[in-house]
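>> received
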Amino acid sequence: MEHSGTTGSVVAERPDALALHVDGREVASYVWRSRLPASTAPRPYLHPVRTLAGTVVTDARPHSHTHQLGISIAAPDIGGRNFWGGRTFVPGHGPAWLDDHGAQQHRRWLRHTESELAHTLNWVDRDGAELLYERREIACHPLSSGAWTLSVRTKLANATDSPLQIRSPAALGRVGAGYGGFFWRGPSRSERVRVLSPAGDGERAVNGTTAEWVAVSGAGQGEWTLVFAPADAVTAADRWFVRSRDYLGVGSSLTWDRPLVLEPGGSIVRHILAVVADGTLDSEAAGALAAAARSAP
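>> returned
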């Protein structure tokens, strides 16, 4: 295990993962070196993520989508390489298995304490060539007696000497598939699932919108609600990708139906807040949590 040399206690759950706590309770494990097959586009991820009562609200490597990993940052097409995992969408053909998967590699720790992590990463193609350089910051904060906030901030910089395109399948012709960026995979065994937002309720009403927040609630071993909200104006302009029928997933999309181009040396910053709450909340309560998370210091 590496040591950062920074102040604060370092907490390790296993050699390649760090535990995160809120008020002394373990709420998440950050797998910073995943050791997964190349077809998953190996990357760091958060799993399991738990409510304060201990209910798990993420899934990783489910049978239907073995490349979906808890809460992660992933992209289906960066310069023609697949950093999402699984099949690649090919225009005029559809999803296909290609040998085009990239990986995210931990570079060095900047900070890690009981409730905060920061490190740098390289996004490399299958031959090890670096496409992106990333600084990632993750923090867990108490919000109320039944909820806590996960903050995920990423800065992605073009590490090549040429313009770099970031594209979603929607940009290649797959309608509604604008995923790529922050992504949460919800638990597979969920009941009474509801999707809420100021734009309306349900997947069809929310997918592709720029709602102020999106909430998903369900029940499994316990009742839970997750509320996702942008932490800044730039992130608020990104559309939401939402799935609730074949699987549970919410993403904040870096780009939808048009490529996002990073010039050499160019960078983008995105910041998402995810409130993890016990119980199944209605729209009013979910909106109040989103507002509280955004206004918290």
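>> Residues 283-295 form the longest helix (13 residues).
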